[in-house]
Amino acid sequence: HERTYIMIKPDGVQRSLVGKIITRFEERGYKLVALKLVHATQEHLEKHYADLKGKPFFPGLIKYMASGPVVAMVWQGLDAVKTGRVMLGATNPLQSPVGSIRGDFCLAMGRNICHGSDSVESAEKEIKLWFPEGVVQYTSTMETWIFE
Ligand code: GTP
Ligand code: MG
Fold it and tell me: Known catalytic residue: 39?
């Protein structure tokens, strides 16, 4: 199955939303295959957001992302990348539907509490960047109740 890189940003950690966000992915039926709490360096975050270099909000984004620890995760399951983004909501929380993570828990674009890969290619790149040691392979006993 497909894998996506999901990250709880420093505001999500500080606001004690880690458990709630993890629970949403668990309850939907996705399988956790990698997880760690890291205080990332600006250098590392600049690599993560390399596509946005040059945007006016880029320096502020890096400062925000480096302001505290983040929870780095890889979730695996059917259509993980696209459905993961739907579960997060829109980039702007004010445009995120109620029921999505951003639509339920935040208000400002520069404090939108979570990140999700935007394509299968970005997911592969981000998983390598955050988990160079690789992800964990294991069998989930619930799989036959979640997938046909
Ligand atoms: P990520 O999942 O974090 O990658 O968000 P995204 O894919 O929905 O949006 P994008 O990759 O375009 O931007 C990355 C992050 O930069 C966003 O999540 C916001 O935190 C921030 N950002 C994007 N656009 C703006 C903006 O116009 N103003 C501000 N202040 N922040 C922005
Ligand atoms: Mg993005």
Answer: no
Report the alpha-carbon distance of residue 127 to residue 44 in Å, rounded.
13
How many residues would you count in the chain?
148
pTM of the model: 0.97
Residue nearest to atom 6 of ligand 1 (CA): 91
ipTM of the predicted structure? 0.96
139 C-alpha to center of ligand 2: Å? Answer: 30
Integer Cα distance of 38 and 25 in angstroms: 20
Band of residue 56 on the pLDDT scale cut at 50, 70, 90: very high
pLDDT in tens, 78-137: 999 999 999 999 999 999 999 999 999 999 999 999 999 999 999 999 999 999 999 999
